[in-house]
From TrEMBL:
Binding-site residues, ATP: G119, S120, N121, G122, K123, T124, T125
Cited HAMAP family: MurD
Enzyme Commission number: 6.3.2.9
Pfam families reported for this sequence: Mur_ligase_C, Mur_ligase_M, MurD-like_N
GO molecular function, one term: UDP-N-acetylmuramoylalanine-D-glutamate ligase activity
SUPFAM superfamilies given in the database record: MurCD N-terminal domain, MurD-like peptide ligases, catalytic domain, MurD-like peptide ligases, peptide-binding domain
Any coiled-coil regions, as ranges: none
Swiss-Prot/TrEMBL keywords: ATP-binding, Cell cycle, Cell division, Cell shape, Cell wall biogenesis/degradation, Cytoplasm, Ligase, Nucleotide-binding, Peptidoglycan synthesis
Catalysed conversion reaction: UDP-N-acetyl-alpha-D-muramoyl-L-alanine + D-glutamate + ATP = UDP-N-acetyl-alpha-D-muramoyl-L-alanyl-D-glutamate + ADP + phosphate + H(+)
Organism lineage: Bacteria, Bacillati, Bacillota, Bacilli, Bacillales
Start and end residues of each Mur ligase central domain: 117-291
Pathway membership, UniProt: Cell wall biogenesis; peptidoglycan biosynthesis
Organism of provenance: Sporosarcina contaminans
Protein name (Swiss-Prot/TrEMBL): UDP-N-acetylmuramoylalanine--D-glutamate ligase
Length: 449
């Protein structure tokens, strides 16, 4: 960890606990900051709050007092999940107090180069692919961010000869100031989290922070098939590495029906790749480009491409039963992700979909419903999704209450050669604490069959 003096004696408010707030509070305190933590949850049963108090760090629980900034704070480090319309955050910005997320701290203290991966979809798969490539290639990678340990905790312990592979969300990137990864990856851009960011432009600008502090010594790997990202790529000072699925290109990394190309030259045959779907091919290109840039052995890259099949809850093959294939795509919390899932199959699909009702339209899924033979609708949006399925000409539509019923109905209606796919196109919070919990429920029910 870099020895920094800028935090010594500085008054810092850590807003929100959970893993990131707890880690940030401990780190800042160890660097000599005067830290106060404020968490909305009650103090009773709050283990992180109790541990911090034992270490002499003041913790205020039970809400975010509007006057808390009157204590003379010079910096706010907030939990990424706390929105910018929170009164304390709004007041801090009005008072010109910097508001960071803990990935900014990670960037400042890390002695290891950071490879940061963001995108509306695909960032976890890309992060995991790259981590495995580097691990097999002997590059001593560490995994951090949304997918692993809190970023500043990993950065605190990272050695200069290691690499931190860090998945970063728009929530985290919105709270950065000098964040500068050695390699930045932007997988794609589609409207998401507008209830948090307010506008599409604000969301995109948060994503763009992954590259905006990079210099000519750094690399920016980005989706060249999306003009929305191209416009931000024009603003970076980093060396640009575009990726494209539209055939062989002279620069960057690209793919046609048969081959992956690096800088216009054949690199590896697509026939070895185990991941299915065009969206996953984008992830493969992004991860492969980053691995090449850090001189990862080609054999390690090929080993991973030839063996890696899925990330849990992301187009995860669960099992085959009586020639029915079950896939868990619980991470598909929006229509874009479900479009990618549906386009990955040519077999008849029994689709389990639905969840939290945010009022989003399902209409953009219509062209991808051709192979769907039956829909099992679940959650708050069950009725709306059922109506949408009927509008697509699907007659076999069932509304159910539980995941157990959904899996049972799908299996009962299926035939040999069918695919039973959980790809909800909705968030999980109507019935589950997370998409992971929803996916686990699906897997549990499949295993009971």
């Amino acid at each position: 960890m870099k020895e920094l003096t800028e935090f010594a004696g500085k008054n810092v408010l850590v807003l929100g606990l959970a893993k990131s707030g707890y880690a940030a509070a401990n780190l800042l305190s160890s660097m000599g900051a005067n830290v106060v933590v404020n968490d909305a949850s009650p103090e009773e049963g709050n283990e992180e709050a109790a541990l911090l108090k034992e270490r002499g760090i003041p913790v205020i629980c039970g809400g975010h007092p509007n006057d808390i900034l009157d204590r003379g704070f010079e910096l706010v480090v907030k939990n990424p999940g706390i929105p910018y319309h929170n009164e304390v955050v709004k007041n801090a910005i009005l008072k010109k107090i910097p508001v960071w997320t803990e990935v900014e701290l990670a960037s400042r203290i890390s002695e290891a180069p950071i490879i940061a991966i963001t995108g509306s979809n695909g960032k976890t798969t890309t992060t995991t692919l790259l981590f495995h490539m580097l691990n097999i290639g002997g590059k001593k990678p560490l995994i951090a961010g949304n997918i692993g340990t809190v970023a500043c905790t990993v950065a605190e312990k990272a050695e200069p000869d290691q690499l931190i592979v860090m998945e970063v969300s728009s929530f985290q990137l919105a709270g950065t100031e000098q964040f500068r990864p050695k390699i930045a990856i932007w997988t794609n851009l589609y409207d998401a989290h507008l209830d948090y960011h307010g506008t599409s432009e604000s969301y995109a600008l948060s994503k763009a922070n992954v590259t905006m502090n990079q210099t000519a010594e750094d690399f920016f790997i980005y989706n060249a098939d999306q003009p929305e990202i191209e416009q931000y790529a024009e603003q970076t000072a980093a060396q640009k590495i575009p990726f494209s699925l539209k055939g062989r290109t002279a620069y960057g990394i690209s793919a046609d029906d048969h081959m992956i190309y690096w800088q216009g030259e054949p690199f590896v045959s697509r026939s070895i790749i185990k991941l299915v779907g065009a969206h996953n091919l984008e992830n493969v290109l992004a991860a492969t480009a980053a691995a090449i840039l850090v001189d990862c052995d080609k054999t390690a890259i090929e080993n991973v491409l030839g063996s890696f099949t899925s990330v849990r809850h992301r187009m995860q093959f669960v099992k085959e039963l009586k020639r029915r294939s079950f896939y868990n795509d619980s991470k598909a919390t929006n229509t874009l992700a479900t479009k990618s899932a549906l386009s990955s199959f040519q077999t008849p699909v029994l689709l389990i979909a639905g969840g939290l009702d945010r009022g989003h339209s399902f209409e953009e899924l219509a062209p991808y419903m051709e192979h769907v033979k039956a829909v099992i609708a679940i959650g708050e949006t069950a009725e709306r999704f059922a109506e949408f399925a009927h509008s697509c000409g699907i007659d076999d539509v069932t509304q159910v209450q539980t995941m157990g019923d959904a899996v049972a109905v799908a299996y009962e209606k299926s035939e040999e050669g069918d695919t039973i796919l959980l790809s909800p196109a909705c968030a999980s919070w109507d019935q589950y604490k997370s998409f992971e919990q929803r996916g686990d429920a699906f897997i549990d029910e499949v295993m009971k069959l």
